[in-house]
Write a structure and sequence with these properties.
The protein is 81% helix and 0% strand.
Length: 513
């Protein structure tokens, strides 16, 4: 049975927060499981084993990104999707998988020849089988997004990850080669795909009756996939072409560190936000309120975390990466600024999609990519890698301003709405910066911790920054009259609920004892 989209209600904001929590929790669990698996596998397998799998997977990653259909977003946006829509998504998903498999197998020999490694062919065949099996999962899984039940999606995807690990690790002990890295995927999907029909029952039929409706919504987003691909690889190309592969390595490692809050918090919650926005897309006033509420909640966490990484770039780099990565220290703050402003702009994309303004979104995105290319090229030619990153920061600030300006008429935003929503977080972050800057780099020896100077400095700056930011936000919130619809109020309510639940559990145990 289709889960109908619910009308807007006072509970919607809370449902979106809960859904976002599970989306972030899923990301954290998946990352943790992946790290756990990798730490064991690197001791059993060689870099060569990981390399052959990475090479074989490269073509698939590109094909997957370019052919992503976003049909699920179309169904989420529908008030009452019918069986024909789910069957069309199911059929087209199989068709997409067949195209990807054909391309993978057709290019396997060429790829193996270019890399002078015949093992690529066999690995590609296994990857192709995993793609084909995965295409048969229940199309009704989309309903969990529509109903903001992201805990069910978390259960499904975490199960798949755990099964993959439980298969890969014994194979690694047994085979001691690259097959352990690739066989876990298709074998685990033989379990998770049938399980998807237990979670989200559906008897699929082959049908493309609703293909026009699906492509009408998704055609511009599919073009946007190309923009995403270019945007993701643009700096690698520019920096690599003019500064060399070593500079690309600096940028890549710095990027993974500096935008960690964006990739682990902001990115996962975009899906719950979109699902929530889809319910209220015909109520502009409610959509505006939820947009501002979501933006406020994100920045309340993203701003101190991202700025904090920039402020502690020296300690993070030298402590975790070592002296040979010292060139990265001045680059991390620039990458962090880029990530923050880029996320601020990307946050508006859900609004364009849910209001059926995909063409405007993609055309603007493409135009801004051309500008980013020009500015970053000028920067790298004149000032090296730092110049390229300053170009990245400049274009991300411009992008953020442009996206917010374009969103204003769609949501009837007043010029003061966004600043009024974010001022407490911004002011608290500025105060945090001032306090952290006052802490000297040699704070460790001054406190008698000369044996661990970097760890002491990082701990002192992180503790002082966190306390300053939290205290300043609290004081500003109290000074503003404790607004009931603010992010701080939602957090306070959530904390009270958690404490009440914990107190209830303690009382229950005491009574049972």
């Amino acid at each position: 049975m289709t889960v109908a989209a619910e009308p807007a209600s006072p509970r919607l904001g809370r449902q979106m927060v809960v859904a976002a929590f599970y989306a972030v929790l899923q990301r954290v669990i998946m990352r943790g499981l992946g790290l756990f698996s990798t730490l064991i596998l690197v001791r059993l397998l060689s870099p060569d084993d990981f390399g052959v799998v990475a090479v074989a997977s490269a073509v698939y990653v590109i094909l997957d990104m370019l052919t992503t259909t976003n049909f699920g977003m179309a169904i989420i946006r529908m008030a009452e999707p019918q069986r024909v829509h789910y069957d069309t998504v199911f059929t087209l998903s199989i068709g997409r998988a067949v195209v990807i498999v054909a391309a993978l197998l057709g290019l396997a020999e060429l790829q193996a020849g270019l890399m002078d490694d015949p093992r690529v062919v066999g690995v590609t065949w296994v990857l192709a089988s995993s793609v084909l099996i995965g295409a048969f999962e229940s199309p009704r899984l989309i309903d969990f997004s529509r109903s903001l039940r992201f805990e069910r999606l978390m259960r499904y995807y975490v199960l798949g990850k755990i099964l993959g690990i439980l298969i890969s690790l014994p194979l690694a002990f047994w085979l001691q080669n690259y097959w352990a890295l690739v066989l876990g995927g298709p074998i685990s999907r033989l379990v998770t795909v049938p399980y998807s029909y237990r979670l989200a029952p559906h008897r699929p039929r082959l049908s493309v009756a609703a293909w026009r409706e699906m492509f009408s919504f998704s055609k511009w987003l599919m073009l946007g996939n190309l923009c995403n691909l270019v945007d993701g690889q643009l700096m690698n190309f520019i920096i690599g072409r003019f500064q060399g592969v070593g500079a690309v390595g600096l940028y890549q490692v710095g990027y993974q560190i500096a935008v960690l809050p964006i990739t682990e918090i902001a990115a996962p919650i975009r899906a719950p936000l979109y699902a929530g926005f889809a319910r209220i897309r015909h109520d502009v006033d409610e959509l505006r309120r939820q947009f501002l509420s979501g933006l406020e909640m994100q920045w309340l966490f993203l701003l101190p975390l991202t700025v904090g990484i920039g402020l502690t770039a020296r300690e993070v780099t030298l402590l975790f990466l070592g002296e040979r990565w010292a060139e990265l220290i001045p680059l991390i703050p620039l990458i962090a600024l880029f990530g923050l402003f880029d996320s601020f702009g990307v946050n508006t994309h859900n609004v364009f999609i849910v209001l059926d303004r995909q063409a405007r979104l993609v055309i603007t995105y493409a135009a801004m990519l051309v500008l980013r290319l020009a500015v970053s090229l000028y920067g790298v030619l004149e000032y090296g890698i730092a110049g390229a990153l300053w170009g990245l920061v400049a274009t991300s600030v411009l992008n953020a301003a442009l996206w917010q300006a374009m969103t204003g008429p769609l949501l009837r935003l007043r010029p003061s709405d966004v600043p009024a929503t974010l001022w407490r977080a911004i002011l608290a972050a500025l105060v945090m910066c001032g306090v952290v800057w006052l802490i000297p780099d040699d704070v460790g020896p001054r406190l008698g911790l000369a044996a661990w100077p970097l760890l002491a400095a990082l701990s002192a700056k992180a503790a002082a920054g966190a306390a300053t930011y939290a205290g300043t936000v609290l004081l500003l919130w109290l000074a503003a009259g404790r607004p009931a619809r603010s992010a701080e109020a939602h957090l306070a309510q959530g904390l009270v609920a958690v404490l009440a639940r914990l107190a209830g559990l303690v009382l229950l145990r005491q009574r049972s004892a």
